[in-house]
Write a structure and sequence with these properties.
This is Peptide-N4-(N-acetyl-beta-glucosaminyl)asparagine amidase A. By secondary structure, this protein is mainly β. It contains three helices and 29 strands.
Length: about 600
């Protein structure tokens, strides 16, 4: 339903939110913040700075900023690299906008913008460690920044962005990241937008793709996946079945003061609903080699702008990415021919913006191509969610707008592969279990919605190496390294919408979510070439807001926490709260505390 409601109230809510909080800020500038960890880690001295782009985005649809840059004026020992994004939006009226940064076709950042108030300019910045990609800058190239914006008599504000690279010497050489030997972008362009616009509901000939040819001595292969969901799928976690969404839109439009033209547009088939489950697939020559069940993003205009002033949602400024170990599928990428790499969103609606970077680790001593043999594979092409209409829908016939829906789906993936290089034979095992549940309840003829969703993923990877021996009476030494990862993305929220006289309305929203990723590494000897390190990170957020069009605005409160722990970096935790658009608490500590 949120996708349907979003089409109805987005403009009105944005205009009202631009009038600022009911309790006015004493400053003329608001600083938006995404609560995270320390800005810089493992750095020493003064940075070597390379400016990339300074640009004002006004009417910028189909007009990304494209700039050439020279090699950085830094020695190679400046191996820690940070991307710094500094942005502002003048006081006025403007939507949240999606944005991204590519260098030589390689995406480095997926982000979105803050929304201004009518009398408050908003500033924010993102600082991201991109040391993994440090080699792509060494000879210069092309940087592309996309931020599609519209400026007219209604939406008045532009976005000013300054982008730079900061190179540091590492404080501890032992903590330097292991860089791949090659980075191959799976993107649509190196000189313009890099993302693919995946529109599942409109796709007839399959998803867009990129032809890729990897070196024959590739030893290990990984993909860093960038994605964000928009338009019909911006709130996919609260999308009901199609038939309920259509009935709700018709009922809502008829009860409201909409014209016949508006009603026809709202109830048109431009946006389905298709339920709340989404799966992102990575394909090679139309064969599935990777699966992601994504973390739901909420942008700064999502549900109600008053939820996100000045604390924005988890991932709104630095969207999480996904590292997929494709080594067990390496044989599908090798050979004399190029291969088509594509991304598909199963059960999705238009549209998703997706691309990725292949991280290629090569065998430097190879005298012959890498030999790959899949020993065992269990990976279904699709999984089908089970959906139950709970009591209130009238014997399963969805005509009653006071309804409830429950969705559940699970998937298992297993693959075991032998890879032989100049160092001998290794056996890679990848095992994953995915779980998803979603519950939605509707009352007041669909105007009150409650939703709860949870995505949980368990991943186990192992590499077993048999070191060759040249003594005929001895066998090689077997060594195994195991990596276990856990991802957990719960969320819950409610939306209550009340129509008043003369087009007035009251919108009450509540939202809570969290993001947890945990990695453990066990074993000795030769491990993965990718730099898996033991690390735990947990972000959580709760927010509530009231918007009353009769009073021309609203207020909200937000509480966000962040905690991380690792043997190398120690512990860090932070608690930030905001009321009525102002930060009132911002405390951090390096003590090791339990998650809240």
């Amino acid at each position: 339903m949120a996708a349907v409601l979003g089409r109805l109230w987005d403009a009105a809510v944005t205009l009202l939110a631009a009038q600022s909080q009911s309790q006015r800020n004493t400053s003329s500038v608001e600083r938006a913040v995404e609560v995270g960890g320390p800005t810089y880690a493992n750095v020493r001295g003064v940075p070597c700075v390379l400016p990339l782009v300074t640009h004002e985005f006004a009417n910028s649809y189909w007009h990304p900023a494209v700039e050439k840059f020279n090699a950085p004026p830094c020695d190679e020992d400046y191996s820690v690299v940070y991307l710094k994004w500094v942005a502002s939006c003048d006081a006025g009226v403007q939507y949240d906008r999606i944005a991204a940064v590519w260098v030589n076709g390689v995406e480095l950042l997926r982000t979105s913008t803050a929304e201004p108030s009518r009398d408050l300019r908003v500033n924010w910045e993102v600082v991201k460690d991109i040391s993994l990609y440090g080699d792509i800058f060494r000879t210069g190239g092309t940087v592309v920044v996309a931020l599609d914006n519209i400026v007219n008599t209604m939406y008045t504000s532009t976005f000013k962005v300054s982008l730079s690279l900061e190179f540091y010497r590492p404080l501890d050489l032992g903590k330097e990241v292991k860089r791949p030997d090659q980075i191959v972008p799976v993107s649509s362009s190196t000189k313009s937008y890099g993302w693919f616009s995946e529109k599942p509901s409109a796709t007839k000939a399959g998803p867009p793709h990129r032809m890729v040819k990897l070196p024959g001595n590739t030893e290990e292969l990984y993909l860093e996946l960038f994605l964000s969901h928009h338009q019909c799928d911006e709130f996919y976690y609260s999308n009901p079945p199609d038939q309920f969404a259509t009935a709700f839109a018709e009922n809502f439009a008829k009860r409201s003061n909409f014209s016949r033209e508006d009603i026809d547009e709202i109830t048109s088939a431009k946006c389905g609903a298709d339920g709340a489950f989404r799966e992102v697939q990575v394909l090679v020559d139309d064969q599935v080699v990777g699966v992601v069940w994504p973390f739901p993003l909420v942008f700064t205009g999502g549900l109600s702008p008053y939820l996100w002033k000045p604390i924005v949602g988890i991932g709104a400024f630095d969207a999480p990415t996904y590292i997929l170990n494709l080594t067990p599928f390496l044989g599908k990428f090798l050979g004399s021919k190029s291969h088509a790499v594509a991304f598909r969103v199963v059960y999705g609606e238009a549209f998703w913006l997706i691309d990725g970077n292949l991280l290629v680790f090569q065998d430097p001593e190879a005298v012959r191509p890498t030999r790959v043999e899949i020993l065992q594979e269990c990976l279904d092409r699709y999984v089908e969610p089970a959906m139950v209409t709970l009591p209130g829908a009238g014997n399963g016939n969805v005509t009653n707008l006071n309804s409830a829906f429950w969705t559940s789906v699970a998937r298992d993936l297993f693959v075991k592969t032998s890879v032989t290089t100049s160092t001998g034979r290794k056996v890679y095992t990848l095992q994953q279990h995915f779980d998803f549940t979603n519950t939605q309840m509707y009352s007041s003829d669909g105007l009150d919605q409650w939703f709860e969703s949870r995505t949980h993923v368990e991943t186990k990877m192992s590499v077993t190496s048999l070191q060759p021996t040249f003594e005929s009476d001895k066998t090689g030494k077997i060594q195994t390294v195991d990596v276990s990862q856990m991802q957990d993305y719960p969320l819950a929220g409610s939306v209550s919408y009340r129509l008043g006289k003369n087009g007035s309305f009251v919108l009450v929203t509540q939202f809570a979510n969290s993001f947890t990723r945990s990695t453990t590494v066990e074993g000795n000897g030769i491990g993965f070439r990718f730099d898996y390190k033991p690390h735990d990170v947990h972000s959580a957020l709760t927010a509530s807001a009231v918007l009353d069009s009769r009073h021309g605005g609203g207020n909200g409160s937000t509480r966000a926490t962040y905690a991380s722990a690792s043997p190398a970096e120690g512990c860090f935790s932070r608690v930030v709260t905001a009321e009525c658009g102002r930060l009132i608490v911002d405390n951090s500590t390096t003590e090791c505390l339990a998650y809240e």
